[in-house]
Amino acid sequence: MLQITKDYNPVNNAELIRRWSKHPINLYTLIKETDEIFYKIAAFPKQKRFHSTQKQWRTVLSDDGKVIPEWLPQLEDEFKSLQMKIQKEVNVQDYGAVGDGLTDNTKAFQKAIGNGSRLVFVPAGLYIVKGIKLPSNTYLIGAGKGITTLRLHDNAPKSAILVTNKHHLSGNHHVFVEGMTLDWNVERLSETERTASGNNRSSCLTLAHVTYGWVKKVEAINAGLHSFDVSSTIYYYIRDGFVGPGRSSFIWLDELNGSGFGDDGITTHHSDFIFISNSFMCDPSGRAHEKGVSNSNGIEIDDGSRHVWLVNNVTTRCFGGVEIKAHHNASAASDVVIVGHLSVHDNRSFNFRHIGHHKGNDPVSKTAYNIRAMNLVAIAPIFTSLYTKSTPRGMVISAYRNVVINHFTLLGDPSYDYKEQPVIAIQYRANRVVLKDIFLDGFDKASGIKGNYTKYKELS
Length: 460
Fold this sequence. Notes:
By secondary structure, this protein is mostly beta strands. The protein has helices at residues 13-20, 27-41, 72-85, 106-113; strands at residues 59-61, 67-69, 88-91, 100-104, 118-122, 125-129, 132-134, 138-142, 148-152, 163-165, 172-183, 205-208, 210-221, 228-231, 249-254, 257-259, 266-268, 272-277, 280-282, 297-301, 306-316, 320-326, 334-344, 348-354, 369-379, 393-398, 401-411, 424-427, 431-441, 449-451, 454-455. The protein has a single domain (10-86, 194-458), classed as Pectate Lyase C-like (3 Solenoid), CATH 2.160.20. The chain is 10% helix and 40% strand. The strands form 3 sheets. Strands 7-10-12-14-17-20-22-24-26-28-30 form an 11-stranded parallel β-sheet. A 6-stranded parallel beta barrel has the order 13-15-18-21-19-16. A hairpin with a 5-residue loop joins strand 1 and strand 2 (67-69). The chain is globular, with a radius of gyration of 21 Å.
């Protein structure tokens, strides 16, 4: 059975997914077919404020054959705008930074970054900082993962974010981070202490209320909360249907690695138009939660997120590989598209739910709608010490409506005791769910697919 180590390079994701999928893939045909099924079965919600438009953005192929959301060219135009706004290129070492793993470089970084409109280069080395805040029109670039490393100072508070934008309240725009490792330095805390201080703090990298942002070729290790967080000003827990202000929008996360995170590897909250591609998340610590009940996901599309694309990502040894969800007192993530994902030894490979809105006596979710997922692979989901009472599943869908799953390969371990639990469970008020081309093998001690769904051939 496939094993993936922490040092895996996610540029190989597409080929790895292709190798393990049991379905021949023509991307153009697959995307077109999935969209056709979606529009055939979808019933759109009446919740007008959260679903500000019923437009479902298309998935397209770029000129070089890569899968992208149709709005990505707008973000590429904004990158050209960022390049034009860069007035000065600087090196942090020219401002006194020393990459010796000992010197506090916080002030040197502040001087180098200034008020923005700068490309700031960070050469090879280990740079100790108490946190970096990036103003608008800033491009922070290192020499590469494992070559340039930023590490939080031993005296940084638990609430510290290693790299974030400068103004969470009023917002920032055009922020780019590339080519480095971010080390949250969890070792500065006691071994028994929970690692997160609440809300959207304690992460390696957070973009909060950012319009036009890029994070590429960055590794994040041992975050107290999340490796990477695309967020609004704060997390909002108010009610289903609430649209949180201060949202981030038009963000691209690409070729990211994350491990040792206290909660999630990559996560989004109350933000719109997000593209997550070619990334690898593994081995959470779960220490943001009580031991044994850690909902630590490789990728989590969370409360109030809208128009999110996941393309060719890989997760392993997490609670959830991909979780699309919301808390009971928040709007659900909606309009999420997955094209290519490999989950290996996650407890729940794919988990789609709106907590508090799925059981018989719960109120029906106003916002849990619209998931299109294709070219998925789940290999050997397992029990985990992260969440001891959770049974392994290849997929769980609850509360969500308008869901199409197309080309899904599930490969189990025939000797593993799945306790006769279902491999796929469609449950708790999930509706308008279509499954097409499901390949399931090796789950000898599990019970297959359970719940109410429509097989593709049953569509009129």
